[in-house]
Structure formats: C-alpha cells, structure tokens
Write a structure and sequence with these properties.
CATH topology: Rossmann fold
Number of domains: 1
Shape: globular
Strand order of the largest sheet: 3-2-1-4-5
Mean pLDDT: 93
CATH architecture: 3-Layer(aba) Sandwich
CATH class: Alpha Beta
Number of strands: 5
Structural class: alpha/beta
Order of helices and strands: EHHHEHEHEHE
Distance between the termini: 33 Å
Largest sheet: 5 strands, parallel
Radius of gyration: 14 Å
Helix content: 25-40%
Low-confidence stretches: none
Length: 145
Amino acid sequence: MRKAALFDLDGTLCDTRAIDHLATEEKDYHAFHAASADCPADPRVREALEQARERGLAILLWTGREFVWRDLTLDWLARHEIDHDGLYMRLAADYRPADRVKSDLLRDIADDGFTVVEAWEDDPRIVDLLRAAGVPDVREPHAAG
C-alpha cells in the first residue's frame, strides 16, 4: 500500500467561495460546476499538497462532482499545474448524499493500493467520515481556530 494525501476539490483545493451561492441558494449545480472553471486554487491548500508530495506521499483528489465534469476538472488542474496520482469522482446520475458517495470512493482508493494518511476536506460530514475511517491527519482548511 502506498501512503497518500487526499484533497477535496470544491471548497478546499478549488476556492469556490465566489460561486458557492449557486450551489447553496439557487441549487444550480450545473452553473456551479461550469463557473468553477474560473475559480482560483486555494494557496494554503495548494502549498499543503506540494509539501505532501515532497514528503513522498501520493497525491489523490476526490470530488462530489459527477464524472461528466471530468474534462473541466482536468483542464482546471492542468491550468493550475496540479499534478496528481489519482482523481476520484461521483458517477454520472449518482444523486446519493456526499458521505455515501465518498465512503464508496474511500473503498476505491484502498482497492487501488493507497492508504490515506492525510486528508484535506471542507465538508464536516466528510471530515467525520475520514476520521471514522481511521485517517490520522484530517485538515479542515476554513475551520475556525
């Protein structure tokens, strides 16, 4: 098993604060994901990603975005020069809650031979999921304190 650092995209690595209202107030996920193409990378999380790479960890990315947004996501990663060893996404038309989707993605990550030893995630439910799964170092980039 290869040790890995796991980074969430929207709201974590991809700074979506300027467009969050599309997903929360208007529930327009199509507009939200399309607009995310122009969002910046969060510099603090980006630095953590580079430090994890320097420590020899595999860099894994995961997202609740549907697979139909894969090309947009890969373009965003290329534009921001973010190399990674794996990208895990929600399947198309999978409308289950994020914690159920990401629970399955954690199994996929393990099946691919990775052990997550560090994770960055903004959703408190997913933070709880990661901690319950035994990830020893879980960071919340915008948590108070």
